[in-house]
């Protein structure tokens, strides 16, 4: 990526893939405690782009914009902002014209608009009925949850006992999500039944740790096994998205060995160290191949 400053001190020009993008207020601090300016943020997005684009492409994108940095006011954005450059493509669904995040120029254009979070739909633009992954979202009921990695380890061991390969990933906030790549032959409803089976088992086996209670006020300090979020029209924090929180955390896939060993926490992975991790491990989600879950779905059906 080639960057050149214009004559104005309040703007810069980013040239990428033949397109020029004007960066307004390039020195604006987005994570001031860590010295991350808008221009630095665009550099980090460029580094993340081969990974982040993979999990946003062909999805309906929701971003969260923070015009004055992560600690300022924010708003969700579903409809594509206008005017838009010609290189920005859109995808329409239920009256909303979503940005289709399919290129680096589009990612940097969104970054210039202070989109600090990227949330991708579970349903794909061209194949909305059969997802390519099944995801369990472990959602803590309290802001500081030291048991979240322990909880993820228990879920991982359960899935392992069911002969299901999975990859844990930090949400980038306080939770952990368990990703299971699947063959695109199962409906969201079928996978919800599997999620309910897992959630019910965990809440019975470890009642001091897990719950499937939907109402936050009734969860106490338990970790919510959210299997309902995985559905058409809903979103998840995309793998490798930054999050608008102190420390500039990034939603990061983990190795199960790291989870089982303990001693890590979601805040350990952030914009200032994610490049080293990616250089060392690459995309850990690639470790699991799309799976046939018929053996588990058949068991659940026959056990009722």
Summarize the structure.
This protein is α+β, with helices and mostly antiparallel strands and 304 residues long. It has seven helices and 16 strands.
**Major sheet details:** 5 strands, mixed
Shape: globular
Give helix % range.
25-40%
- At CATH level 3, the topology of the largest domain is DNA primase, PRIM domain
Spatial order of the strands forming the largest sheet: 12-13-11-15-14
Please write the string of helix (H) and strand (E) elements.
EEEEEHEEEEHEEHEEHEEEHHH
Low-confidence stretches: 3-7
DSSP summary, beta strand count: 16
The total domain count is 2
Shape-level CATH architecture of the largest domain: Alpha-Beta Complex
Query: First CA to last CA: what distance?
Result: 57 Å
Radius of gyration: 20 Å
Name the structural class: alpha+beta
Q: Class of the largest domain, according to the CATH hierarchy? A: Alpha Beta
CATH superfamily descriptor of the largest domain: DNA primase, PRIM domain
As a percent range, the share of strand residues is 25-35%
Question: Average pLDDT across residues?
Answer: 94
Give me the number of helical elements.
7
